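Hi L., both proteins are below.
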Amino acid sequence: MATIRLTMAQALVRAMAAQKTEIDGRTVPIFAGVWAIFGHGNVAGMGEALHAARAALPTFRAHNEQAMAHAAVAFAKASRRRRFMAATSSIGPGATNMVTAAAVAHVNRLPVLLLPGDVFASRRPDPVLQQIEDFGDALVSANDCFRPVSRYFDRISRPEQIIPAFDRAMTVLTDPAECGPVTLALCQDVQAEAFDFPESFFAERVWTPRRPRADDRELAEAAALLKSAHRPLVVAGGGVLFSQAEERLKVFCEAHGLPVAETQGGKSTLPDSHGLNMGAIGVTGTAAANALAREADVILAVGTRLQDFTTGSWSLFDNPGRRIIGLNTQPFDAFKHRSLPLVADARAGLEDLDRALGGWKASAGWTSRAAEEKAGWGLVAAKYTGPTNADLPSDAQVIGAVQRHARASDVVVGAAGGLPGEMHKLWQAGAPGGYHMEYGYSCMGYEIAGGIGVKMADPAREVFVMLGDGSYLMMNSEIATSVMLGVKLVIVVLDNRGFGCINRLQRATGGESFNNLLRDARHEALPEIDFAAHAASLGAIAEKVAGIGALETALERARGNDRTTVIVLDTDPLQSTDAGGNWWDVAVPEVSQRKEVMEARRRYEAALGKQTIVG
């Protein structure tokens, strides 16, 4: 057997560079690069290996380990899980900074390879700088934090262990059902140790998406159930986009007259203008989608994990006899809440189900009802997003301004706070992938780093990042990274001086405004933060505007700019869209000295009676 002597780190990097995939008939590297912030735990081993391979496997430098992993996660999502990236850090804080991003990837079923440095396997210099010492377990290190947020975790304590570990990593990263973050904790002394690796470990391997087809019995049962439906509804989740099944879903729904509602992950599956697209469903849903959901007797849930925002904490689907068909590659999701499972790839499953249904169509009355609900919602939504002369516009009015400026090919990126709720119901996506929202983990600080990953995945599309001042202050350093890498973003910062979304939730549950808006937090003086000056100091083109008209003019300028542009405007922290949506289970205290809390508790208890508990 032919071998080549390499360090463990060199072997890992060479193996990564040899992994390929096919996209549009072209064979391309499946790893688009490695994000790296070096420290004593990875600079000598991984750093040396990445430098030698930089032509085949580019290395990108960021300013925060969590942010660079967010960028990698967003790249994978924007690439429909066909390509992905790795991220390497030193031990200690560098490693644990990536744990939050690992959780984002885990919740959203997205591939990313995390390569944190680890302690010395030899233990000779223990305790090393930044080492966590467990008094009762010598095998524990800081990297054990990754275990619950990794689909696969391994610690490499001998160089040859990288062979089976990397093989397992690749199967998880590319598997449609298991897909998620992989963590290979690399002991820093082992990174530099050499081994005679078999040359076969570095042979090119091409990974193509697996498309498991439906079981015959499950397919027959699902088709029979759909044919019995009087008011069927399709719920499209992110799995539709990951499977590149949007065209198949369109054909399927048109053939059978089925209205479609979209989750946060599934939004942009169909163009907003499509007659069967009812838009967002659930807590942040449109009145059209939720009206149909309340009456639906059969729900075909495609590629969704049925999160509480989708189901209205299981209070939305009111029909007492309703049944759910779970079309999903992952049985864990397909079986949820006693759904009738249809375990299959979304595209293959829809093809099979289409054939099984033959010429069956939903009743013309139900399809017409859907069209009426959609038209009605469109009139309502336009009132919230239209132009205004208000000094402090609402989030919805800002969304409307960006929408009027956007083109069908553009991508809008968001994450936590109030914006995702407004964008889910009000943004009109024009093309698949044009709506990129991290709402599985609802992670503040994802937006700017995520925008970088989106732009790297598809440089031809204009990327708009929308975020509040709270998220901006949590993680803004990657503005400098975007400028450094020439990755242009248009960032719109809505400054409502605090955490406006949670302030509204606090008041809705009977609480007094407290510790969310800056004015309601303990302070000696209120900060006057110049976000435009700050963004400019990081290298961006930046300006602050007053009002919607000025925002639209600035957006037009931004499209012509050659680098990342930040536009800041003041917004109203109290306004939100009160049309559409559904109740969400946020527990209210049973006992309080505040009468407002006790009133909210009474409303809460009444709403609990609408929840469906499936045993």
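That was the first. Here is the second:
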Amino acid sequence: MPADLSSSATPSSNGAHVAYRPDIDGLRAIAVSSVVIFHAFPALLRGGFVGVDVFFIISGYLIGTIILGGLAAGTFRFSTFYARRVKRIFPALLLVLIACYGFGWFELLAEEFKELGKQIAAGAGFVSNLALWQEAGYFDTAAETKPLLHLWSLGVEEQFYIFWPIALWLTRRNRRAQGWLIVIVGIASFALNVFTVGSHSVAAFYSPFSRFWELLMGCSLAFLTLERTAAAAKSGNFMSITGALLIAASFALVNSKRVFPGWWALLPTIGATLLIAAGPNAWVNRNVLSRKPLVWIGLISFPLYLWHWPLLVFARLIEGELPAWPIRAEAVALSLVLATATYLLIETPIRFGQRIPGRVAALCILMLGVGYAGVNAYQRDGLSFRITSMASRFTTTRFDTTKSWREHVCFLESSDRAEFGSACVDSGHGPLVFLWGDSFAAAISPGLRDLQSHYDFRLAQYTASGCPPLLPADARDPRCARVHQQSLAALRETHPDLVILDANWISSDLASIKDSIAEIRADGVKNIVLVGPVPQWNDALPNVYWLYWRKNHHQILPPRSSFGLVAGIPELDGEARNAAAAAGVRYVSALGVLCDSDGCLTRTGAGKGELTVFDRAHLTPAGAKLLVDSSVDQLLIPSVAPPRQTSSGAM
């Protein structure tokens, strides 16, 4: 919905007289109501989105009247024009953007908040249509989760407000040239719309160049009205009835399956043009559009448009699906309340109240600040510390992977050189446990380290991201080949008493693990353990906490839960068990330790406890300790390492 200019103006500050027409406010009401109904209850009015096109006509007519009239009278000033636009558009828009940011801070996941930040920045910069042009279409499923999607139309209008006043000012000394300018640019824009809508539908929908013709149709009506001030009373009724029928036909015939805008956009735009051209005394305008309820909806149409879509989207995000119709009805009712309050308490005082020096500058600075907040949220990946902070109300997750996993030394990232440090094998002469695998193996290393306080063994850690312990060594990529060559060299040199294999297993890995096991056996290792897959979540576990909190009326995710679990892990656990049995090695079912019929552990320990994983599946040190402690026998630790002697003192 565009930022419609107020038709309630009397003589404008530019000197152009814009007589108040209640019927135009009534037409606004029809336009905004159709859009709101389409968004809330699309099955009731499948063509309701064309209300935006009606608004383009209204805005083009009013903006054209102000500019053309001011230029003709010699009173048009760019500074005054843009100051009026700021006072008209910024107050309500700022309020909605700030409210969306505040809601998102407390309720949205990191990725959702990052996307919202991008939308806020684009909305504050009036380039939402250009941002959306690079993404998905207006009717795509993803559009239903974008709280500020509707600001695309505001972007089109503001871009028109930048270009069109300058174009008309350059032709101010020649009315005929102004008329031809409107006609030529309008036809070119409409032709671009028709030629691109079939092959580049998203561009045709969002591009200002394929939308300007709608505003120019309204502007052309303003030009003709100023040239011929005497209305044709005899044709007024016919024009108003025809216009109303065309708009009604567009609601009935246009839908998301049509190629739009294209030729179909002529139905609502010609209809709106005819209704405005018919004049306030035409039958439909006087007896329908000028009714007080419609006029009032028209007066609050801009804030109503701004509020209704974010409320519907946030309701959908909280519910996790399309909300039931009573919830959508409540969102529409709340948008009406907020629109009324915004109009009475924010818009009207700022636009028509006492003049305050610096008011326009203050609004511009605030808009820049809001835009920066959006950019910051986007660049900082949705400020994910908000989610970790929320989850920490119920749990703690305090550890540093650099230290716990021995990053860049015994756990190599993809950016590291494929060279393990000399400290990856504990010094001494006790039994040696050799841990070989990827980041999932690195994640259980803190549990094995903790176990050293109870059993006398040394630990060797050779782990690298994205490199499960598969042979031949070049099975994954050259980097993994170099990693595994070093791992095998260390294994042959140290002669470990026990080798533990762990990774983010997939079926194909398990089918070929036998080759790695055969190579380890050939090097003289008798004790080999395969650790199976851990439970995985659809999102990072802190995010799952947030999702559960948001969806279940601020209830805490239980210590055991199946909410948000990835399906298929039990089947993978069975494959891993079979692979271990076929290779004749011991198997540790991580799934069996961490999950039961009530679900999988989300946190462990007394009190607040600690999260078992910090992302989708990597164990925290607390989760690793639980896994290792609960499967110490299956890990064969007591078989290869004696318990440490504990001293007892006499009282």
